[in-house]
Specification:
Blueprint (H helix, E strand, L loop, with lengths): L2 E10 L4 E3 H5 L6 H7 L4 E3 L7 H16 L8 E5 L10 H8 L6 E5 L5 H14 L6 E8 L17 E11 L4 E9 L7 E3 L10 H5 L5 E3 L1 H22 L9 E4 L4 H11 L10 H4 L6 H9 L8 E8 L3 E8 L3
Parallel strand pairs: 4-5, 4-6, 11-12
Antiparallel strand pairs: 1-7, 2-3, 6-7, 8-13, 9-10, 12-13
Length: 326
């Protein structure tokens, strides 16, 4: 049996920051209000005319530097993002070209904040098929490009960042062991971008009304995120015969510190087993889980049991049982 295992990871966050003090100068908010509600102190912002693919290219280049593999040996790049540089071509094609992956197929995948989990499972299935040996999954977003900085409920949430993982085949019992993916399209009214697609095309009116930014009904999303992330994580733990003691790390999408704490309480897993970097990076959407793996990489040991869980617009959500490979 062929398993798909992560054999390397790279990441990138911009140097520039937006602090809570910065936000207090442009919208009615303050550090105490933001920290008590979402647990975010600062978030990174990509400037100087750069776009999402720039962050992905930096993450992939770091991945190559760390692993030392031949760029021409990469057979595919799958990019999970909601903020590509263009509607077309796909960001993945830009990333492949700019990183020298001249033999790689490339396409984008859009599952909002659940993008990394969806992308990793898609990549794993290419590897499990036996036809591919090296595929890179890239996940990240330039969320500041779609943030309404006059909306104090959403503007403190989002930051920019990207992670990339190399996935290869193995005959060992490690890697992407199992995934559960879920969708409920009734969530559309509660979390979406009102304009910019073919239903409501860009116009002077849509721009003036800030309809090209994130619209979120926070209470509805909060409740569903807590319940669904905890439920799907519990489901994958039980389906794979794990006990809570078997789990080394829970890696949740970094949406809101209150969501993370509530989900961990429902899981009945100690908070010290949760990877959390939301205070420094905010919600980077599809980028949040791989950025956690990137930061915690030095602490991970081969065979560690990780549960990844995410929830995002769509509604999309899911969980992955990942056994670390190195």
């Amino acid at each position: 049996m062929i398993n798909a295992v992560i054999t390397g990871i790279g990441g990138y966050v911009p140097e520039d920051k937006i602090t809570n003090e910065d936000l207090a100068k442009i919208v009615d908010t303050n550090d105490e209000w933001i920290m008590s509600r979402v647990g975010i102190k600062e978030r990174r912002v990509l400037k100087n005319g750069k776009a999402m693919s720039y962050m992905a290219i930096q993450a992939v280049n770091e991945l190559f530097e760390k692993t030392g593999i031949d760029r021409a040996s990469v057979e595919g790049i799958i990019c999970a993002t909601s903020t590509p540089d263009y509607y077309f071509p796909p960001a993945a094609s830009i990333i492949a070209y700019q990183t020298g992956c001249k033999n790689a197929f490339a396409f984008d995948l859009q599952a909002a904040c659940s993008g990394f989990i969806y992308g990793l499972e898609t990549t794993a299935n290419f590897i499990r098929s036996g036809r591919y040996k090296r595929i890179i999954t890239v996940a990240g977003d330039m969320m500041t490009s779609i943030t309404n900085y006059s909306d104090r409920a959403t503007c403190p949430l989002f930051g920019d960042g990207c992670g990339a993982v190399l996935v290869e085949p193995t005959n060992e019992s490690i890697g992407v062991m199992d995934s559960i993916l879920r969708t409920d399209g009734s969530g559309l009214p509660h979390l979406h971008m009102k304009a910019g697609g073919s239903l409501r095309m860009p116009s002077h009116e849509t721009v003036a009304n800030n309809e090209h930014t994130v619209y979120q009904e926070g209470k509805v999303v909060f409740k569903r995120a807590v319940v669904e992330m905890a439920n799907v994580a519990n489901e994958i733990v039980e389906r794979n015969g794990l006990t809570k003691a078997d789990i080394n790390w829970v890696v949740p999408h970094q949406a809101n510190i209150r969501i993370l704490d509530a989900a961990m309480q429902r899981l009945e897993i100690p908070l010290e087993k949760m990877m959390v970097n939301i205070e420094r990076y905010g919600n980077t959407s599809a980028g949040s889980i791989p950025l956690c793996l990137w930061e915690w990489e030095p602490k991970l040991k081969k065979g560690d049991n990780l549960i990844l869980a995410a929830f995002g617009a769509g509604f999309t959500w899911g969980a992955t049982y990942l056994k670390w490979g190195y």
